[in-house]
Write a structure and sequence with these properties.
The protein is α+β, with helices and mostly antiparallel strands. The chain has 9 helices and 15 strands. Helix 7 crosses helix 9. Bound molecules: pyridoxal-5'-phosphate.
Length: about 300
């Protein structure tokens, strides 16, 4: 049934508040607080071989994020995972991402304070196809630029308020780069949508420690644990761009790229400007972990 298959491809199925609907029909109210105030939380999990990668970690972070803003999930996390799986199955998604967002719902009027009545939080999900394991940029490495980190003080919450990252990543795109590293007080906080790492000349993997200054990356957490299990030295501390440019390697991690080498920062090469062996090895290790533990 090629026509039907094509139809599925062109108009994937999304999930909106209890219903599976074609993406083009998936709508929420203009009074939704996610739309009006960015009063919402999101998560992105990778899909490999039709299964969710490290999803327990993403759901744990979702629970933490909603807890930090006193937002009650409209479904249990067990049910949320069932919906994610059903959406993956309905879209016949083999490799890609599941995006989910929960907001404080739509009240009858625009009011900053939380709704007083019984307003149900909005829960939406959609999928996108993406070749993650064989991504060309994993072989070539990526260029990053640096921008000032102009975000708010609670970056540990995975909030949908992403305007600073929109501007940072647009600046990167205009400069022909794939990611922006955000700088605060002279140190790299993280990438616009990724965690930042370097490998020092002494073979120490360095990434900033978790705090309110960065999002606690799920991929970061897994990569740090996998590296430590293999007796690689990891130091969780801030680093500067000067240190990154003097490093043996640099790389980023995220659910949507796994581990990706950084070969230039603001047009300056990192080492010889080619992906290094440690980033390559960590990527292989993470892919094995992802495949082995996906649900
Ligand atoms: N840091 C920021 C600001 C992000 O937006 C993301 C992912 O979107 C990450 C780090 C990486 O997190 P994860 O590995 O959980 O995808």
């Amino acid at each position: 049934m090629p026509a039907r298959q094509q139809e599925i491809h062109l108009d994937p199925i999304a999930y909106v508040n209890g219903s599976f609907v074609p993406l083009s029909d998936a709508k929420v109210s203009i009074l939704d607080r996610g739309f009006l105030f960015a009063d919402g939380i999101y998560e992105v999990a990778a899909v490999l071989d039709g299964k969710l990668v490290d999803n327990a970690s993403h759901l744990a972070r979702l629970e933490r994020s909603v807890g930090e803003i006193a937002l009650k999930l409209p479904e249990t996390v067990a049910r949320i995972q069932e919906i994610q799986k059903e959406l993956v199955a309905r879209n016949k998604l083999v490799s890609g991402l599941v995006y989910l967002e929960v907001t404080r719902g739509a009240d009858k009027a625009r009011d900053f304070a939380f709704p007083k009545g019984d307003v149900r939080p909005t829960l939406i999900m959609f999928t996108s196809e993406k070749e993650i394991v064989d991504a060309p940029s994993a072989r070539t490495g990526i260029n990053v630029i640096t921008v000032p980190d102009i975000r708010w003080a609670r970056r540990d919450i995975k909030s949908v308020a992403l305007l600073a990252q929109v501007l940072a990543k647009q600046a990167a795109a205009e400069a022909g780069a794939s990611e922006a590293w955000m700088i605060e007080d002279g140190f790299v906080t993280e990438g616009g949508s990724s965690s930042a790492f370097i490998l020092t000349q002494d073979d120490v993997i360095v990434t900033r420690q978790n705090s309110n200054a960065i999002l606690p990356g799920c991929t970061r957490k897994a990569v740090v644990a996998l590296a430590e299990e293999r007796q690689l030295r990891v130091e969780e501390r801030p680093f500067t761009v000067t240190e990154a440019l003097a490093a043996k390697e640099a790389f980023i991690t995220s659910a949507s790229v796994f581990v990706q080498p950084v070969v230039a920062i603001d047009g300056n090469k990192v080492a010889n400007g080619k992906p290094g062996p440690v980033a390559r090895r960590l990527r292989e290790i993470y892919v094995d972990f992802a495949k082995a533990t996906a649900v």
